[in-house]
Amino acid sequence: MAPRKTPSHKTPTVKPSSAKTHPRRTAPAAASGPQMNLAESPLAWLARRTGKDGRALVDPTQLAAGERLRADFTRAQLTPRVTSRWSEVSGAGTPEAFTDMVLAAKLRVSRAMTAVGPELSGVLLDVCCFLKGLEAVERERLWPARTAKVVLGLALDRLAVHYGLSGVTQGRARAPVRSWHAAPEPPQA
Length: 189
Hints:
Layout: H1 42-48, H2 60-75, H3 100-116, H4 118-129, H5 134-141, H6 147-163
């Protein structure tokens, strides 16, 4: 079937769409962090799963602590490279080549690993930063099955304490009632 031709004296009219167009909003540069895909994170996968008791395997506080460590690890440029970097700047790898943000992120990662301790920091780096699954961690370390989940939970709890994160809020039971009263208006004559 051949397409219908429009006579030359008639031009087709385009109806305006009823959908409103919204201008794109861009995030401020200071608020943007490293781009991460939570779908690839084993920690986010564990946070979506529940145990036999119905609770999440990783609670929101632990997830926030682990993702904060991962963000600092990424900012510190500690992730391994898969390919060669051909556009390397001369002098890279020297302290002068690092920005203040990279150095501060490295310091935060170092302090977090020191706070967690040498016993638990390895499993945190493997799962949160190198994105290894729990089975791979157990296989590499020759641990029995399902022990990496317990060790990871302990490490994430200690990391959350280091970051000052808590699952509960504490404070006064009630805030005092405060009100403002305006002076009465004089009667109108």
